[in-house]
Amino acid sequence: MRHFEYKDLTTNSYKFWDIKIVCKDVIVSYGRIGIKNPAVNTKKFSSKEEAKKYFEKKIKEKTSKGYLEH
Question: CA-to-CA distance for 34 and 32, rounded, in angstroms?
């Protein structure tokens, strides 16, 4: 699993975003840092290669928005 956080003091924004691959599924959990029940989304793919491409694409999108890996 890879863990990312976004913190912006001026907008009081403290978010996290986690992503992992399980077999051919990409599982993402996200929410405000410190919440007990984060939102979880699962996207299913027909191959591990497709899942890996999606995984890498989503990481690039988040880091371009200012999320930092922890």
Answer: 6
